[in-house]
From TrEMBL:
Pfam families attached to this UniProt entry: AHSA1
Lineage, highest ranks first: Bacteria, Pseudomonadati, Bacteroidota, Flavobacteriia, Flavobacteriales
Domain Activator of Hsp90 ATPase homologue 1/2-like C-terminal: 11-134
CDD domains: SRPBCC_CalC_Aha1-like_4
InterPro entries: ASHA1/2-like_C, START-like_dom_sf
Listed name of the protein: Activator of HSP90 ATPase
Annotated Gene3D superfamilies: 3.30.530.20
Record family assignment: Belongs to the AHA1 family.
Amino acid sequence: MKKITVEVAVNAPIEKVWDKLNNPKDIEQWNQASPDWHCLNASNSLEVGGKLKSTMAAKDGSFSFDFEGIYDEVIPHKLIKYHMEAGRTVEISFKEENNQVVVTETFDAENQNPEEMQKEGWQAILNSFKNHVETT
């Protein structure tokens, strides 16, 4: 399965970056790829075997979908691994560099959309996350 990687450097301490990535109330604020979408709700049980779930929707009500993952590995402030339905995996690493935290996400591509489109969507969500952390 083809892997895609996206990355962002966040100007914030590792504790804040970790918390904002995993707190459901924060996830609801940053988890969208464009301004015409939003995250209706999120829940997160950040432990091996725990579940991450969010509902993303077009603001005009035309489309929505659930995103779900089950955690395989959690190392606080370092690494998160989870899998989605159909066995696709996601790995998120955190690295402190030059008073920033570099957040890198590597995920298995799906077969329905072009890889570049998937990369752009995941990068847009990660950019939204960076903006949320740095402005709250």
